DNA sequence: TGCAGAAATTTTAAGTTTGAAATTTTAGGC
DNA sequence: GCCTAAAATTTCAAACTTAAAATTTCTGCA
């Protein structure tokens, strides 16, 4: 069971490949379940989740397209298409900014909120299921480690 | 700094969102650097990595399309397109299976191997850089945890 | 042998994703 | 008040991705 000593660099690479494998596997399973149970896609779910969270935080005017693309870490052009299809389905509505005509606010409709809450409940259960091999103590520890990582990345000075 | 006690289910969801954020951020950075420095894309790099690894393990006939799609956890139709473009660029060649005409073997050309080794060296450095906030001991620990996770997922009985 | 079903792959349609270019609007300096 | 730069968004072309259908080939069995 002993393992050959690897350089820190090679170990980080090994970790990266494992992380990628884990997230791809979980994502594939979540996508499949969203599709089968709700006819939804992962990107749409992600967008709706961001809008729902924003709505909880400040139930006023939703998010701008730019806030949305930053929150999801995807390109701005990408968000345009996904929102377009969500609007077609009646889950999202656009609202112009009265004071800045460049900006468009986007928010969930009531139908969108209801649909999201439905999916989110199931989604939480699925994630819990798929990550169930990780004991709660491990989960807490991992969150700590990742918090530290994020702090280090976002505070270069 | 104290945090409200969350249910195991909510904690796993929190971990999942953090993991997603980490991997998306690292992937975005890797994609950008591959593009700028090598004019390559992440999917192409992944495919070449799988083929290179296969070539090291058994330097005979490469991988079949099915082996490739399973190794990368992507759909079979997906691999077809990526391989097509890699063939056009002279990095990959197809070879028919003599005994089974349904099967196509795929392997890196010499140019493909050289190009990959170049990128792989840089890629390892980038990953090391992007994950550098994680100390070697943490990296080892995380690998352990993920190994256990994988074992639990793949051994249901 | 003949044939039903499985297996490997490609094709197709729809959606996602990116990076860059184009468009529209705003802000700030002069 | 103009004019250039910045900001928000959309458009565009190319690539990636999936699930499902179609194609080709093989396998096993009656």
TrEMBL record, chains A, B:
One of its GO terms (molecular function) is DNA-binding transcription factor activity. Keywords: DNA-binding, Transcription, Transcription regulation. The keyword Transcription applies. SUPFAM superfamilies: Winged helix' DNA-binding domain. GO terms for biological process: response to stress. The keyword Transcription regulation applies. Residues 12-151 form the HTH marR-type domain. This is DNA-binding MarR family transcriptional regulator.
């Amino acid at each position: 069971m002993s393992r050959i000593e690897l350089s820190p660099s090679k170990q980080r690479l090994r970790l990266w490949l494992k992380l990628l494998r884990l997230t791809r596997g979980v994502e594939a399973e979540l996508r499949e379940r969203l599709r089968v149970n709700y006819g939804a896609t992962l990107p749409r779910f992600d967008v709706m989740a961001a809008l729902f969270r924003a709505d909880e935080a400040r139930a006023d005017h939703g998010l701008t397209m730019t806030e949305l693309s930053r929150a999801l870490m995807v390109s701005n052009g990408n968000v345009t298409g996904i929102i377009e299809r969500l609007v077609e389905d009646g889950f999202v509505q656009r609202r112009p900014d009265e004071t800045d005509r460049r900006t468009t606010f986007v928010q969930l409709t009531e139908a969108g909120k209801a649909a999201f809450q439905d999916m989110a409940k199931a989604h939480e259960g699925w994630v819990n299921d798929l990550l169930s091999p990780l004991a709660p103590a491990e989960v807490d520890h991992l969150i700590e480690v990742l918090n530290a990582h994020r702090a280090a990345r976002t505070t270069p000075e």
